[in-house]
Design a protein that fits this description.
Elements lengths: L1 E6 L4 H26 L4 H26 L2 E7 L4 H14 L2 E6 L3 E6 L2 H6 L5 E6 L3 E7 H15 L1
Antiparallel strand pairs: 1-2, 2-6, 3-4, 4-5, 5-6
């Protein structure tokens, strides 16, 4: 059995969204805590901690999409594709995914939790495409690496 993973390029719009959301959350929390609760002027807080309040959201917005980008995993030359597909589906159910669509040649999985669906900027969907002698899985890098590791671990 051979497993190939190819990753797509990082998404610039996702980088921008994560940067804006984390900037708004971090600065909003700092404003609420220091200005409203502790009665400290926000200008004073920002002048002391501007590096944290600016660069943390920027670095998070750049690093997170690079670490968890979409990819496609292809599993070829397996002797028993039915057991392999059941194993992949059980891994997904274990990680909190549910099947939302099944076709003759493909299955689509999505997170069960509505909060995780909303907070996932990539959409949170995973598509499994069953072919004659291979299985293709389209999803996030972290989940694809987890599936690959569990498949290789069970094989040995």
């Amino acid at each position: 059995m051979t497993i190939e993973i190819k990753y797509y390029k990082a998404s610039i719009p996702v980088m921008f969204k994560i940067t804006l959301i984390s900037f708004a959350l971090l600065n909003g929390l700092a404003y609420l805590i220091f200005t409203i609760l502790l009665k400290t002027p926000f200008e004073e807080v920002f002048s002391r901690n501007w590096i944290i309040l600016v660069f943390v959201p920027l670095t998070q917005g750049l690093i997170q999409p690079l670490v968890d980008r979409k990819g496609i995993m292809t599993i070829k030359n397996s002797t028993n594709f039915e057991n392999l597909s059941e194993k992949v589906e059980s891994i997904l159910v274990e990680k909190g995914y549910q099947e939302i669509n099944r076709d003759n040649n493909s299955s689509t999985f999505e997170k069960k939790s509505k909060l995780k669906k909303v907070t996932n900027l990539h959409g949170g969907k995973l598509i499994i495409d069953y072919r004659e002698n291979s299985i293709q899985i389209v999803g996030q890098k972290i989940l694809l690496n987890l599936i690959e590791t569990k498949i290789k671990w069970d094989k040995t």
